[in-house]
Amino acid sequence: MQCSWKAVILLALASIAIQYTAIRTLTSKPFQLCPLPSPQNCGLGGQETEPPFERGTAGGGGCDDYPYFSINATRKTHILVLATTRSGSSFVGQLLNQHQEVFYLFEPLYHVQTTLIPRLSHSRNAADRRVMLGASRDLLRSLYGCDLYFLESYIKPTPTNHTTDKLFRRGASRALCQQPVCDAFGPADVNVEEGDCVKKCATLNMTLATEACREKRHVAIKIVRVPEIGDLRALVEDPRLNIKVIQLVRDPRGILSSRIETFRDTYRLWRIWRATGRRPYNLDLSQLTVVCQDFLSSVSTGLTHPYWLKGKYMLVRYEDLAKNPLLKTKEIYDFLGLPMDKNVEDWIHANTRGSNEPSAKHKFGTVRDSAANAESWRLKLSFDMVEYTQTVCQKVLHQLGYKAVKSVEELKNMSLSLVQDKTFVPFL
Ligand SMILES: *[C@@H]1O[C@H](CO)[C@@H](O)[C@H](O)[C@H]1NC(C)=O
Ligand SMILES: *[C@@H]1O[C@H](CO)[C@@H](O)[C@H](O)[C@H]1NC(C)=O
Ligand SMILES: *[C@@H]1O[C@H](CO)[C@@H](O)[C@H](O)[C@H]1NC(C)=O
Ligand SMILES: *[C@@H]1O[C@H](CO)[C@@H](O)[C@H](O)[C@H]1NC(C)=O
User: Fold this and answer.
1) Ligand 2 atom closest to Cα of 161?
2) Are residues 239 and 260 in the same domain?
3) Residue 234, domain member (yes or no)
4) Residue 33 pLDDT > 60, yes or no?
5) What is the pLDDT of residue 236?
6) Closest Cα partner for 35 from 147, 127, 112?
7) How many domains in the chain?
8) 225 and 245 belong to one structural domain
9) Is the CB of 416 under 6 A from ligand 4?
10) How far does the centroid of ligand 4 lie from the alpha carbon of residue 414, in Å?
């Protein structure tokens, strides 16, 4: 009989899920017990295109938790900005954050890293990496389901009564600085500064934050702590999610230059190199090579169009965005399948080149003369640093269309752009 057949399968699924939940609860003690599965919430029907045997693999499927996903949830878009530090990701984050229908979070994985591997900010240790990635995927899944309580396990000190004032970069998330989450600003305050939000909004009530998330049509999360797209495969393939990955890349020479300015402690030896013209013997080269390796693996994966990324991956060069923010942002929204709203457009006008408003704040490197800014590293790095970067990052520079320079004159001559025209058509 059809019906009992289905019942048997559902029972089997449920028991697998309960076991998985039990194992997870044992192995990851601080986490809450996941609610019992309910079959109608598993997005089994949905508009899935993946073959059924792909489900439930690699930590993907199974009806283990996430009670907030309904059949409708497949229509919710789960946007992931995959980036690295100083690649212009705050700017891209803002392009999503400004949208009325988007709930945006700025790098929640910060909390995972500081809890799991506190002292190793760029651990290459394979075991650490696996732990970090597994935990990151679990957290991202929960957050896409608007389960913000899940994040509390990682926040130090542990939130009491579901409130905290330690959420990393809370002020970068518009929804967390607005009513009903924060009463300090009214509807007229359209552009609340991050610092003002943190100062004026009281402690963050995670229950209210959760509600704010559920009220938005879409969830966008920016991360800089996952090395490459392949690490996210289980998430991308998860049938309960509707993930769209925007991978942001930037010329590694620009990233290096920007990091030298920003991370004054960790990039101290690079500054010494720049100032003295001599490369310190104990320079941590991995600070540069890791960026290039990660880009290379990601981009190589993305551009070979594996079926699991179909319709779910878009590669964006920061320089293209800086050169033509409005056009590029429209392309991003087209890829996401969302209409771009007026808020986003207004924000671009106010924060990029073309803004005549003297009060426009220079919060983003991209602000104002964004196109020139994207290549300003050329005036800051020395030729031998550039040459060195070109050697270790040769392949990825070529793949992404960044031109190598052969002389100081070429490097400093800003009338020739080092960004070659190159179109990365999203794989649809
Ligand atoms: C699904 O979404 C549609 C439109 O957004 C809504 O009218 C409908 O009630 C939803 N169905 C469920 C089961 O939530
Ligand atoms: C948490 O809430 C309970 C009950 O409302 C209260 O007694 C307790 O003091 C609160 N804890 C903190 C740390 O605010
Ligand atoms: C947080 O918000 C919820 C929902 O409004 C409320 O019930 C709860 O009391 C608030 N928590 C605190 C500690 O104020
Ligand atoms: C800079 O490049 C342009 C275009 O190739 C060239 O015409 C110009 O002479 C160069 N300027 C200098 C100072 O080398």
Assistant:
1) 1
2) no
3) yes
4) no
5) 96
6) 147
7) 2
8) yes
9) yes
10) 9
pLDDT digits (tens, 9 = 90+) for 68-84: 444 445 478 999 999 99
From 27, 45, 39, select the one nearest 63 (Cα to Cα). 39
* pTM for the predicted model, two decimal places: 0.80
User: What is the whole-number distance in angstroms between the Cα of residue 47 and the centre of ligand 1?
Assistant: 15
Average pLDDT score over the chain: 81
Please state the φ and ψ torsions of residue 266, each to the nearest 5 degrees.
Answer: -70, -25
> Does the pLDDT value for residue 399 go beyond 50?
yes
Residues 116 and 173 reside in one and the same domain: yes
pLDDT digits (tens, 9 = 90+) for 183-199: 999 888 877 888 999 99
* CB distance 72 to 217 below 8 Å: no
Test site for ligand 2: of 160, 206, 207, most ligand atoms within 8 A of the Cβ: 160
Question: In the listed set 222, 249, 276, which residue is the last one of a domain according to the structure?
Answer: 249
CB within 8 Å of 405: residues ≥ 6 apart: 383, 386, 390, 411, 418
Atom 11 of ligand 3, nearest CA residue? 205
The answer to whether residue 171 sits within a structural domain is yes
- List, in order, residues 6 or more apart from 304 with CB less than 8 Å away: none
Instruction: Output the ligand 3 site: residues, CB below 6 A.
Output: 161, 163, 205, 207-208
If you measure from the C-alpha of residue 72 to the centroid of ligand 3, how many angstroms do you get, rounded to a whole number? 28
Ligand 4 within 6 A of CB of 407: no
Q: Is residue 70 within 6 Å of ligand 1 at its C-beta? A: yes
Q: How far is the CA of 416 from the centre of ligand 4 (A)?
A: 7
CATH label of the domain that carries residue 143: 3.40.50
pLDDT of 59 reads 35
Residue in 223, 189, 188 with CA at minimum distance from that of residue 298: 223
Q: Is residue 340 part of a domain?
A: no
Q: What is the pLDDT of residues 327-341, one digit of tens each?
A: 999 999 999 999 999
- The Cα 41–Cα 61 span in angstroms is 12
Distance 373 CA to ligand 3 centre (A): 44
Q: What percent of the chain has pLDDT over 90?
A: 60
Closest ligand 4 atom to Cα of 413 = 1
pLDDT at residue number 5: 57
Q: How far is the CA of 263 from the centre of ligand 4 (A)?
A: 33
